[in-house]
Design goal:
By secondary structure, the protein is an alpha+beta fold. It folds into 3 domains: 64 residues, SH3 Domains (SH3 type barrels, Roll); 60 residues, SH3 type barrels (Roll); 172 residues, Zn-dependent exopeptidases (Aminopeptidase), CATH 3.40.630. Helices cover 27% and strands 31% of the residues. One of its GO terms (molecular function) is N-acetylmuramoyl-L-alanine amidase activity. This is SH3b domain-containing protein. Keywords: Cell wall biogenesis/degradation, Hydrolase.
Length: 359
């Protein structure tokens, strides 16, 4: 048996059903939102853009750094709505992972140098608005490139270079020592080249970027033992532009910048070590370091020289660049690769800085 449904009845059925359909959709959506409300999520990428609306066309209003933990109150079409330090925005939810940890380590940064500038914006071109000191805890608000937007204990908000802080309160600066002639001296050590920039190539295939990093690590150990605060422009085999190296130096109060290199020449008999300076004020530091290098290293002493290099010219006045021997000359190369060479260089540079800054 078949029943006929009149047009009036069917129209009335649809009219009655629509409110229930919308109610069902609303309840389903509410359930999805409620599942994420007040839950903590950790950022899983280096930098995650925060947008004003849940789409790629909306404006970027900030960014979250890796490992930062945020509260998510709702999710919509692959976008999570977050609140961080009073700012509301949307991030791509696939870059978040749920966590029960909302510890301060994800929200705080600790200054790991003796003193650091706080600036009005995320670059060294912005005005210095304050300072922070070793061990200070700063609340992370946002990131832009390699800079962190932070809130100081005083409530003041500004920007600090990300390489001057870490996520632990453990201080990585110089260990306590009863004999610290360089205590209070801030030194930036720059291992030349790196990453896809190999630098000079030795006659045996040795790439300059490797001994520069090895030597710089030894120098850092020696300086820290003498009490200095040391910042490395690179600690791994990675590329840095010349301006990156200058920016690192100018991001905090630096007493001395030392760039470490090894030389090369088409002339097979070129040899020796030399120290370059650009600013007149850096000549005394160059002289002190070169004097101690000549006393500790057996290679020919080529003296100090004026050098129109970007990392010297655009940098602080007490900036020097070292050429610690020729990779293209067999006698120099043998000395450079000998056991203890990097240690002798480190001892000489430490003595040169002590002579310059401890009097």
């Amino acid at each position: 048996m078949f029943f006929k449904i009149s047009r009036v009845t069917s129209r009335r059925f649809i009219q009655l059903s629509i409110p229930f359909i919308f109610m069902f959709i609303f309840l389903s959506t509410s359930t999805i939102v409620a599942a994420h409300e007040k839950e903590s999520y950790r950022v899983g990428v280096n930098s995650l853009n925060v947008r004003s609306e849940p789409n790629l066309q909306s404006s970027i209003i900030g960014s979250l750094s890796e490992q930062m933990v945020v509260k998510v109150d709702k999710v919509r079409n692959g976008w999570a709505h977050v609140n961080y330090s009073g700012v509301n925005g949307w991030v791509a939810s696939q870059y978040l992972s749920k966590t029960n940890d909302f510890s301060t380590s994800a929200k705080e940064a600790f200054v790991n140098v003796e003193s650091a500038f706080i600036r009005s914006g995320p670059s060294i071109d912005h005005v210095i608005i304050g300072s922070s000191f070793s061990g200070d805890s700063l609340e992370k608000i946002a990131t832009e490139g390699k800079w962190l937007k932070v809130r100081l204990n005083s409530g003041k908000v500004g920007w600090i270079a990300g390489w001057l802080v870490n996520n632990s309160s453990t201080n990585t600066s110089a260990p306590p020592s009863s004999d610290s002639p360089l205590k209070g001296v801030n030194v930036v050590l720059d291992a030349g080249h790196g990453g896809y920039d190999p630098g000079a190539v030795g006659m045996n295939g040795l790439l300059e970027k490797h001994p520069t990093l090895k030597t710089t690590n030894r120098i850092a150990q020696r300086l820290r033992k003498a009490g200095a605060t040391v910042i490395m422009t690179r600690e791994t085999d990675r590329y840095l532009s010349l301006q990156d190296r200058v920016q690192i130096t100018r991001s905090y109060y630096t007493d001395a910048f030392i760039s470490v290199h090894y030389n090369s020449s088409s002339t097979p008999y070129a040899e020796g070590i030399s120290t370059y300076y650009y600013h007149d004020a850096g000549k005394a530091l160059a002289t002190s370091i070169q004097q101690h290098l000549s006393q500790n290293v057996s290679l020919q002493n080529d003296g100090i020289q004026f050098g129109n290099y970007h990392v010297l010219r655009e940098n602080i006045e007490n900036s020097v660049l070292l050429e610690l021997g020729f990779l293209s000359t067999s006698s120099d190369l043998a000395a450079i690769q000998s056991e203890g060479y990097a240690n002798r260089v480190a001892k000489a540079i430490s003595a040169g800085l002590i002579n310059q800054y401890s009097n």
